[in-house]
Amino acid sequence: MLKDIPVLSLIALIPLAGAVLLLFLPGRRSTWPRGVALAFTAIPLILSAWLFAGYEPILGGKAFAEHFTWLSIPLNAEAWGPDAAVASYRLVFDYRLGIDGISLPLVLLTGVVSLMAAIASVHIRKRWKTYYALFLLLQTGMYGVFLARDLTLFFIFFELTLIPMFFLIGIWGYFGREKAANRFLLYNGLGSAFMLFAFLILIATLGFSAEAATAGGNAFSFTGDYEVLLAHLSDPNAPANIAQPGNAMYLSDSLKWTAFVLLLIAFGIKLPIFPFHTWMLKVHTEAPPSVVMIHSGILLKMGVYGLIRFGAFLLPEQLDAWAPVLATLGVINILYGAVLACAQKEFKLVLAYSSISHMGIVLLGIASLNEIGLQGAIYQAVSHGLISALLFLVVGTLYERTGTTKLDELGGLARSVPFTAGILLTAGLASLGLPGLSGFVGEFLAFLGLFGSMKALTAVGALGVLLAAVYVLRSVLGITFGPMPERFIGMKDARFVEALPMVALAAVILVLGVYPSLLTDLMQHGFDGLLKQLSTKAGG
Amino acid sequence: MSMLASYLTLAAVLFCIGFYGVLTKRNAIIVLLSIELMLNAVNLNLVAFSKYGVNPALTGQIFSLFTMTVAAAEAAVGIAVLIVLYRSKATVNADEFDELRR
Amino acid sequence: MNTLQWSDTWYLAPEITLAAFTIALAVLDLMLPNRTNRDLVGWLSLLGLAAAGVFVGWQMYDLHAGGAASAAHSLLGGSYRVDDFGNLLKLAFLAATFLIVLASLGTIRQAEMPIKGEFYYLVLPAVLGAMVMSSSGDLITLFVGLELLSITSYVLVAARKTSGLSSEAAFKYYVTGGTASAFILYGMSFLYGVTGSTSLSAIGQGIGPALADYRAMVYVAFFLMIGGFALKLALAPFHAWAPDVYQGAPTPVTSFLAVVAKGAAFAMLYRIFLNTAMYASDQINGSAVRDDLFLALAVLAAAAMVVGTTGALRQHHAKRLLALSGVANAGILLVPLSLDVSNLHASLFSEFFYYLVAYVFMNVGAFAVLSVIAREKGDEAVSAFAGLYHRAPWTAGGMTVLLCSLAGLPVTGGFFGKLFILFGTVQTRAYWLAALLLATTVVSYYVYFSFIRQMYMRSGDTDQGLRVPVPAGIVIWLSVAATLALGVLPKLFMGWIDDVFSILADFLF
Amino acid sequence: MATVFSPYAWLVPAFPFVAFAVLTAFGRSLSRTGAWLATAGTFLSLVLSLVIAIERMTGAAEDYRGGYEWLRIGDFSLPFGFEVTNLAALMLVVVTLVAFLVNLYSLGYMKGDDRISVFFAYVSLFTFSMLGLVLADNLLLLYIFWELVGVCSFLLVGFWYQKPEAKAAAKKAFIVTRIGDIGLLIAILLLFWYMPDHALDFVSLHNVFDPQNGGTISLGITTLIALLIFLGAAGKSGQFPLHVWLPDAMEGPTPISALIHAATMVAAGVFLVVRTFDVFEASQAAMDTVAIIGAFTAIFAATIGLAQNDIKRVLAYSTVSQLGYMMLALGVGSVPGAMFHLFTHAFFKALLFLGAGSVIHAVHTQDIREMGGLGRRMKITAWTFGIGALSLSGIPPLAGFWSKDAILAAALADRPWLFVVGAIAAFFTALYMSRLFFLVFFGKPRGEHGAQAKESPGVMTFPLLVLAALAVVAGFANTPWNGWLGQWLTGNAEADHASALAIVVSVAVGLLGFYIGWLVYVKGAVRRDVLSSRLPGVVRLLERKYYIDELYAWLFVRPLRALGDALTAFDTHVVDGAVRLVGAAANGIGKLNTRLQNGQLQTYGLAGLLALVVLVVAIAGRRFW
């Protein structure tokens, strides 16, 4: 039954439908928008859970691939120019959705975190209608990014996340919201510009293919279809691989490197990789917590996903050659982020830098170029998504009550809000990689994978684990332990709507920590293609 | 050919003078006149070409007729605009027309 | 058959219609007593524009009636051509003018423009000029069209008689325009000199051989014209007049200048470059004149994009800002032409035209919103948009779409327009242009989102609802709809252009 | 002989876990019953582990292994299983027994604390993790539980979270042990990539590192692995230089000190080394390191213990010192010695802590200078504490004597100079224990509470009695003339290096130490400040624990803080500055344009002219010259 309905499109577009619907509903009070938003956020989650149930790693999700010809644009229908046999060139941007072991975990992550963030949006005080509409629009963007199987489509969805985020930060944020919103928009816009550049280069070379000859002569097309690009990559007869003068579609090594570096920067900004991380500090501190849940929980993962999906799969040689660079960058990320996290006086900043540190671990996983590491990277991405979402949920809840997130103004909250404090402690332990919680698995797999190839670097990176303990305990204990200021006496503990997502997220984190196979089984064959590529490169 | 060359040179000189006037003269009237000067340089060019150019024909001269007519119309409008402007600004100094800036 | 036949009048129907309406309306405007509202004239001119549009469409249908992929009808000895290039642009111009006039109905205040009638019937000859420019096959006709457009638009700019700004703008526009015409004309004269003809096709054939002994003169000819066009198109650094003029002119005229005048100049540029400059290279001693000329265009385009966008960063006056954005967009529009036309990249016109249409809609729409706000607040600063979200949420939403299109964000016409142009640059491996295009696009986010910040994140002095006049509302929503349509289904339009237009039949003849 | 009960060994940790789950779920509603419930859970596991142990003692049942696959990636798989060996069985008994007694004791000790259910939840969680650690059949699983016990210890040390000291101590405990954990983690990574088919379970470890089929892994790597594992062990077992957290950990409730920081968790390090002993045996360098570190820790901590005035800290340092002994034993290759001492030490050290707890309970202070004369008021506590003290000081025939003697004998046989060190440490041990004992229970009451101190309730004294009994008899499990325990543990008959010399010396130093203590603190024959007046420097040095904490502050804490601040500046000014610079650049170009817009038409024209000239010269000009 799963095969009959376009479940992927439903997942991607239902939130959009919700957003449109919202525009026509009364927005005086929060009830209507909130209800609709929750409903339209829950449905995709259910659908993706359904997907999860029906997914078979062996098939690699081929069963779910969807494709409508969206636009195939005639570039030139002339028999003109040097080779007159040419009938037409077409530019084919198709609507292609697909799913595999790499994207499915992230889709699930998106579903879970979005729903939790939607529930946690009780802290939003104004313009509910607009807020939830944008919130849903954002979801469409995110799902689309993880599901798209066409470069242009991917780019469009990627851009689509920028606009709602700009509003969400700029309207509902804290004091410095406008600056933060601008910073976000420009920096990420730059990133997507780099990405588009790389994509177009690839489309113009790898994407070139001859179609069935028509009456007028041969028909050629440029396509952004991911599968086609992959096929051409390994096909020696593809024009992109034929080095002869005058072949405008030849994908020379220099071009490959250009594309690779462009992609690395593009997704490095999202990830973020040092030194492209400063924008996300502002977002973390200025955006409303429920938005940061999405941002830190999912948006950063789009960088991870893109880097693997395109950087790794489409340009394996470059990745292979640059694995040490990536690993070094990863280690820098880990240590830099960790050390800075140790020095912050604002809890949100601690979390921001800890995100940088954790994303470094993802980089290590990617750099390992073996299955363990790559799975570790994805796993780390997912678990970090959940953990940071949970942490920011707690931050929001605490800010509601204490009105501050400065470490030196907080303290002893375990007495007045024991439940929240307990959750915070749990989340903290998860983020410092305590076994039995999801954080550990990703970390361990990433390190394990990289250790196969680069021992020393891994060992250095492992110091991050120690520093993680330092900054997490420093901040978390600073908030929950110690003597409590009088003004916090008589604070109410988390309400049900706040407690519900906390418990849910904590539960997921625990389950993933205790029984990782839940996710790793999905990824089982996800990387086969890439690994084959690499092995052949190594062989020949 | 030398004939042509001299005509062209003269035209070029005229054109340059005109352009120079446009760029430097403070009096707006003079500026308008300078534009006319440039157009006349063109006419000279056209006529010269139509006489001494490659396969001489009347086309050039006809072109120059068009040019003159149009130039006349243009000049008329220009003067009109200038008059309106003078009404509101009470000056014809081009460099005082800088209310629109930055 | 070099003389005008009766049969030819049919092909000139659109132009004739416009001319007729112009005269009729002028007379009518004189006749009407002063107290009667001149909107009547406005509606009539709308009628005229519509009629002309219908004729154009009819002719396009005719051209392809025989199922011929593409044909062109040339009359008056090839000095005037009715072809798809011309027709497409004519449609665009007519549509744009139609929207502008429609929007102006009800938004122009009497105080702003004492004699509205003039505006309504002077727009028509301006469009006529633009149409002539877009479908001439001869230097003379091109020049006449250009002047027709320019002279009328001088007057239009000055339409706000009472305001000194308006007339100053008119003066500046006049001087620049005159100088530009002079340059173009001077260049043309040399072109005529080296080839001995004013017909584009003849020049095209003659220019290759002429290179042998007149190379310098060819350079002079084309660079003079390039200079002139750069001035007309306000390509940086020839652009400095544009913000002043746009600011001084009445808003509808501003958007007319930004859209139609620009488009017409582009039409002329295409005519001249694709018919003559294309052939300015001889294989014998392979002088690279052609490449130089196109390179010059590319450089100008790049400069325009950079200067326009960065200049807009520091601009707080909405009209000046849009003027600078116009500079940047002119640059973008110039990119496809400046790219090397090879058998891989013959889609330059489709790219250009697609973006032009997108640009028409987003600009006209934006100007309409601006005029509505300005009319009500009498202030044309960007800050006038403050709190628009609270006052008119839907209008704010529409404006947001238009701005996204200007900024080239999906899913809007602007996005795909830029995407196609970008792809062209990458295809022809003009990576530096692509990089600049992308960079300026990112910078432009800041520029255009400054409106959005005002609308959504600042609270204006007042919160009572903003009344949007019906015609303006229609225009705004038409533009928004068109922008979105172009963004969601580019195929329809792009495919249509490709079916209709043939680079072989329309140029390179 | 097939084993009957071992397949159910997984139940042993299961009971406490259930208790933990129940308590966390609805702890608040059932405060005191919850406590009883936890105790009951531990009791069940105690029974079961006793059964298992007895079964294994009566007939030599073969080791049992069970489990399932935890994680499979491609062709690597990480199993998740438990293994019952004699060693495991012994540890099960020790852990469950002490845990049960501590639970019982806490019922009295923690009475009236409003978070008592939380306390018992933590304790149950700890018991579960510790048992899991004992049963784990592979290194990864062991590591997981290893971390869990660490967290429990952290939670319990910080149980009174409002005390800043508790907070600091908890943080310190976690972070310092974490250092060791990283070592262990890297060791695991190494093993994963070097072991044939990535096996991590102890059996294959044993086979791979077995001398006869050795050589599969190079000596260098082996040493590296061994040292990294030992780093982990040192972290947990408070070996020098990672011992600093253990004394501070005494901020936790006293029962916790008894359970975690004396009997079980801190011994986990020793257990780990024993579990992976094959790796160590394969590398002499590693063995030497272990032995030397152990010996040094033993004497180093003992000396500090001499100068402490906090009753619990004295005991803490003695724990460190005793753990040093165990490491020493391992270093000189005597697994039985180490395990035996671990076994006895668990009892008498738990006894001492609980006794100390009962004292603190009575006088509400931990400073021994404010105690005194409690012997008459708290008979049971005094007697049991005395037994514990004597046992620790190695006075025959108490348990401590036998185990310590075994170690010293082994050291003597292997490296005599280590034996000397050990003997001196033993002397100090006896000395500070006697000091402690006499100061607390003899003389006049000094603190204000001392006068009306009274004996603790039954739930608290009963465990004391049990432990005291064990502290007396446990030693006979392995005496020089019958090495039963050693045989049972290692399977092969241990070549016991029983030597008269060792016995004599250890007895001598023990008695001497105690005698001196008696002279000084009871009889007053020697003035107490004899040392502090003669060489104050030494005493100060000991009181300040050799300034190790200060050293660390200088070496790590401050540099880290400084680096953090430096990088923050770097981040805000350099990295972000670069970003701002880009923005400024764009703005700058814009400014140029604004400069041009001066409203002067002729300026515009001039700009155009210049541009045109440049364009022509640049593009066309190059063709002509």
Protein architecture, described:
The complex is a heterotetramer of chains A (540), B (102), C (509) and D (625). Chain A is an alpha+beta fold and 540 residues long. Chain A has one domain. Chain A contains 20 helices and four strands. In chain A, a hairpin with a 2-residue loop joins strand 3 and strand 4. In chain A, helix 3 (103-120) packs antiparallel against helix 10 (289-314), helix 4 (128-147) packs parallel to helix 10 and helix 15 packs parallel to helix 18. Chain B has 102 residues and is mainly alpha-helical. Chain B has helices at residues 2-24, 28-52, 59-89. In chain C, helix 2 packs antiparallel against helix 5 (116-134), helix 4 (84-104) runs parallel beside helix 13 and helix 6 (139-157) packs antiparallel against helix 7. Chain C has 20 helices and two strands. The model of chain C has no long low-confidence stretch (mean pLDDT 87). The chains are: A alpha+beta (540), B mainly alpha (102), C mainly alpha (509), D mainly alpha (625). Chains in contact: A-C, A-D, B-C, B-D, C-D. At the A-D interface, helix 11, helix 13, helix 16, helix 17 and helix 19 of A face strand 1, helix 5, helix 6 and helix 25 of D. Chain C: Belongs to the complex I subunit 2 family. Chain C: It comes from Cohnella nanjingensis. Chain C: It catalyses: a quinone + NADH + 5 H(+)(in) = a quinol + NAD(+) + 4 H(+)(out).
Could you give the distance between the termini of chain B?
50 Å
Number of strands of chain A: 4
SSE succession of chain A: HHEEHHHHEEHHHHHHHHHHHHHH
Along the chain, the helix and strand elements of chain B come as: HHH
Largest beta sheet of chain A: what is the strand line-up? 1-2-4-3
Q: In angstroms, what is the radius of gyration of chain B?
A: 17 Å
Structural class of chain B: mainly alpha
Q: Uncertain spans of chain B, ≥5 residues at pLDDT below 50?
A: none
Number of helices of chain B: 3
- Radius of gyration of chain A (CA) equals 24 Å
Short description:
The complex is a heterotetramer of chains A (540), B (102), C (509) and D (625). Chain B has 102 residues and is mostly helical.
Question: Can you lay out the helices and strands and say which pair or pack?
Answer:
The complex is a heterotetramer of chains A (540), B (102), C (509) and D (625).
Chain A: H1 7-23, H2 31-54, E1 66-76, E2 86-97, H3 103-120, H4 128-147, H5 151-172, H6 177-205, E3 208-214, E4 217-223, H7 226-234, H8 253-270, H9 278-286, H10 289-314, H11 316-343, H12 347-368, H13 371-402, H14 413-416, H15 418-431, H16 438-453, H17 455-480, H18 496-514, H19 517-523, H20 528-539
Parallel strand pairs in A: 2-4
Antiparallel strand pairs in A: 1-2, 3-4
Helix pairs in contact in A: 1-2, 1-4, 2-3, 2-4, 3-4, 3-10, 3-13, 3-18, 4-5, 4-10, 5-6, 5-10, 6-8, 6-9, 8-10, 9-12, 10-12, 10-13, 11-12, 11-17, 12-13, 12-16, 12-17, 13-15, 13-16, 13-18, 15-17, 15-18, 16-17, 16-18
Chain B: H1 2-24, H2 28-52, H3 59-89
Helix pairs in contact in B: 1-2, 2-3
Chain C: H1 6-11, H2 13-31, H3 39-63, E1 73-75, E2 80-82, H4 84-104, H5 116-134, H6 139-157, H7 164-195, H8 200-233, H9 241-248, H10 251-275, H11 289-313, H12 318-338, H13 348-377, H14 388-391, H15 393-407, H16 413-427, H17 431-457, H18 470-488, H19 490-500, H20 503-506
Antiparallel strand pairs in C: 1-2
Helix pairs in contact in C: 2-3, 2-5, 3-4, 3-5, 4-5, 4-10, 4-13, 4-18, 5-6, 5-10, 6-7, 6-10, 7-8, 7-9, 8-10, 8-11, 9-10, 9-12, 10-12, 10-13, 11-12, 11-17, 12-13, 12-16, 12-17, 13-15, 13-16, 13-18, 15-17, 15-18, 16-17, 16-18, 18-19
